[in-house]
Amino acid sequence: MFETVTPPEPDKIIRLMGMFAADARTDKVDLGVGVYRSPAGTTPVMEAVKKAEHRIWAAQESKTYVGLRGDLGFLDAMRRLILGESVPADRVAGAGTPGGTGAVRQVLETVHRLNPQATVWISDPTWPNHPAIIDHLGQKRRSYRYYDATTGGIDRAGMMADLAGAGRGDLILLHGCCHNPTGADLLPDDWQEIAALCARTGAIPFVDMAYQGFGAGLEADAAGVRLLATALPEVLIAASCSKNFGLYRERVGTVLIVTEAKAAAEGVLAGMNRQNFAFPPDHGARVVQEILGDEALGALWRGELEGMRRAMEGNRRALAVALRAATGSDRFGFLAAHRGMFSLIGATPAQVDRLREDHGIYLVGDGRMNVAGLTPETIPRVARALAEVLA
Ligand code: LMR
């Protein structure tokens, strides 16, 4: 069956992971895939996670199935974390999924089944797996203007003009915070305007929340999605615990749907899980539930998360300063204003190749840099290389 098949090309992030692993240079610098690294260059298991795992190990007596939507306690904890008090619990349906990607997939497939005519509007640019999943499902998609490379900010007028073309039932895919790949986030006024547009047109916001706590802080990062939840009858959310709990390989994600038809939505989500993978993974979800349900563990986790956020902010500032010194200009000043792990630094694909080949510095082909991959040791070298290659 497979003899004549050409396997699909891995996307640019996955391809880069392979290239980095195959590079024998010992001083190579990985600024590619979105994984947090400490100033020591490692991705340790968070202490709160370790403690929660110990407790689970000691107390858990069975690994039998939980439920098609996963553990209800986990879903409730995720609802509180993301939506706070913005909407009552009886207006939020939820289901566990394998990671944030699983949640994105479940939301899109659900919408495709219920409304095959819906167009999904994605920001230009966006995470490459968004269009890949949409295309795989055979959904219609359109791009809306988002990033303005000349300012390093958002093209607000272009975005709102494009989104005015979204019709009733269309999905508008938004990054809840820490926009991937640009690092340029929507401001409260933007969320307000988008809420008003959705109320007017009947388009439905779909918020991908993969980095809560990495931008301006846990609460501030959720302000946009909470505003939508308060203002609109229906909001779709895909959330990930990969980054903020460091649970990458455990695959912990959640679909949340703000709706007046909670029971029906939960039935649909349970059916969708059953057909795609039956029961969502439990271990990582249980770790999250343990942490969020315990005051001391929760405080420890919040502290660790805030430490990661500050370290990334520190990397941004240090790189911006080093680049100002290396280039004698403020050209890269936007780096310090961006939020989260990523920034588009304005390199062409050829410049990205040169950074990799001549300097061992790995960026995604569109010029996306993971600032969490920088360390105090590598920042001067990266700044010099960027100044030289992007001159
Ligand atoms: C990224 O954008 O690098 C991360 O979200 C990892 C991934 O799955 O692509």
Description:
- This protein has 391 residues and is α/β, with parallel strands linked by helices.
- The chain folds into two domains: 12-44 and 307-389, Alpha-Beta Complex (Aspartate Aminotransferase, domain 1); 67-293, Aspartate Aminotransferase, domain 2 (3-Layer(aba) Sandwich), CATH 3.40.640.
- Helices cover 46% and strands 14% of the residues.
- It has 15 helices and 13 strands.
- It has helices at 12-22, 47-59, 72-83, 99-114, 129-137, 156-163, 188-201, 218-221, 223-231, 262-276, 283-292, 295-327, 334-337, 349-359, 378-389; strands at 29-30, 92-97, 119-124, 140-145, 147-148, 153-154, 171-175, 204-209, 235-240, 253-258, 342-344, 361-362, 368-370.
- The strands form four sheets. The protein has a seven-stranded mixed sheet with strand order 2-10-9-8-7-3-4, sandwiched between helices. Strands 1-12 form a two-stranded parallel ribbon.
- Helix 2 (47-59) crosses helix 11 (283-292), helix 2 (47-59) packs antiparallel against helix 12 (295-327) and helix 4 (99-114) runs parallel beside helix 5.
- The radius of gyration is 21 Å and the shape is globular.
- It starts with 11 loop residues before the first helix and ends with a helix.
- The model has no long low-confidence stretch (mean pLDDT 96).
- The structure holds (2S)-2-hydroxybutanedioic acid.
- (2S)-2-hydroxybutanedioic acid (LMR) is lined by residues 13, 33-34, 127, 180.
